[in-house]
From TrEMBL:
GO biological process terms, semicolon-separated: DNA-templated transcription initiation
The protein's name: Sigma-70 family RNA polymerase sigma factor
Superkingdom in the source lineage: Bacteria
Domain named RNA polymerase sigma factor 70 region 4 type: residues: 105-154
Family listed: Belongs to the sigma-70 factor family. ECF subfamily.
PANTHER family in alphabetical order: RNA POLYMERASE ECF-TYPE SIGMA FACTO (PTHR43133), RNA POLYMERASE SIGMA FACTOR SIGZ (PTHR43133:SF62)
GO molecular function annotation: DNA binding; sigma factor activity
Keyword annotations of the record: Sigma factor, Transcription, Transcription regulation
All copies of domain RNA polymerase sigma-70 region, residue ranges: 7-75
InterPro entries xref list: RNA_pol_sigma-70-like, RNA_pol_sigma-70_dom, RNA_pol_sigma70_r2, RNA_pol_sigma70_r4_t2, RNA_pol_sigma_r2, RNA_pol_sigma_r3/r4-like, WH-like_DNA-bd_sf
């Protein structure tokens, strides 16, 4: 106990000052200093004087304890009521009907397009392929892919307006 008291008297204020510089919070520095001193006491048998000075070992323990506390503090808490985490409500009957009719209208509008434009729309929007990937797959120049998709959109827009 006398050795711990001497160690505490000698290193306690220095560790507190070091942790205060890191945390900028007196109470946190005091708590971390006490935690550091307990860790030093528990790990005293692990100290090897051949590997360096005792002060370097002690301040390494203090720094590691501060890092652990900082990581715990910075970890976001999980809020079950966060609107971003709540799934969208299921559509009610009128919304489902509108979605179903919109889907049916889109299918009918796609039937009005030439097959090569339907294929480009499918690759781009349903398979999520980039224009360059589509160009490589189809053997078409990238400019042709872009212009055909743009043309297909114009035709789809016209066809969907007719279904309204």
């Amino acid at each position: 106990m006398a050795a711990f008291e001497a160690l505490f008297r000698d290193f306690g204020p220095r560790i507190r000052a070091y942790l205060l510089k890191l945390t900028r919070d007196r109470q946190a520095a005091e708590d971390l200093m006490q935690e550091t001193m307990l860790a030093i006491w528990r790990k005293a048998g692990q100290f090897d004087p051949a590997r360096g000075q005792a002060s370097a070992w002690i301040f390494t323990i203090a720094r590691n304890i501060w890092i652990d506390a900082w990581r715990k503090q910075k970890r976001p808490t999980f809020d079950h009521d966060d609107p971003a985490l709540v799934p969208d409500p299921e559509p009610d009957a009128p919304e489902r009907m509108v979605l179903s009719q919109s889907g049916a209208a889109l299918h009918e509008a796609l039937k009005t397009l030439p097959p090569e434009q339907v294929e480009l729309i499918r690759l781009s929007f349903f398979d999520d392929a980039s224009h360059s990937t589509i160009a490589a797959q189809t053997g078409l120049p990238i400019g042709t892919v872009k212009s055909r998709i743009r043309l297909a959109f114009g035709r789809l827009r016209t066809a969907l307006e007719e279904f309204k």
